[in-house]
Amino acid sequence: TIDGGTLFVCNTSGSGTGTGAVTVRTNGTLAGNGSASGVVTVQGGGHLAPGTNFIGTFSSSNVNFYFNSGAVLDYEVGGSDLAPTNDMVVVRSNITFGATATLNLNRADGATIGDPIRFVLFQYGSTNHPVMPAWTINFGTTGWLRGRIFLDEANMQVVLDEVQPPKGTILIVR
After folding, report:
1. Above 60 in pLDDT, residue 172?
2. Ramachandran area for residue 41 (φ above 0: left; ψ -120 to 50: alpha; else beta)
């Protein structure tokens, strides 16, 4: 159980969390580029942050991920317009979302990306497609104005796209 702190999981093989279940409580964070082999549950106010101060992937091996209502996902985006990159979660089984979730986006150090096209947030391995929550997207240091998160069932992905970067000045005439 992660309660009010951060657990960085950075293993390169096996499970960085052992075989038991991992629960992330309010103000707790599960972060890193490693993997977990036990069921992962992120409760309301708990955070999942793939990567460790740079773009990275957190993965699971044949276990379910549960994001209770109010769970928070902290992602970085980076690269360039021609080669965008982003944090990602690979779940080899099912993802279950509660009614609401928050995605916090921030630009990675050195990123030059300005006009992105599409980011894969989750790759999952089950044909039991997740029901999408009502998302709140905080664009943080990206400078972007809006976007949408949708389920790409054909590719078994949860995707952020239609991101709108700021462009010039908007003049409203009344």
Report:
1. no
2. beta
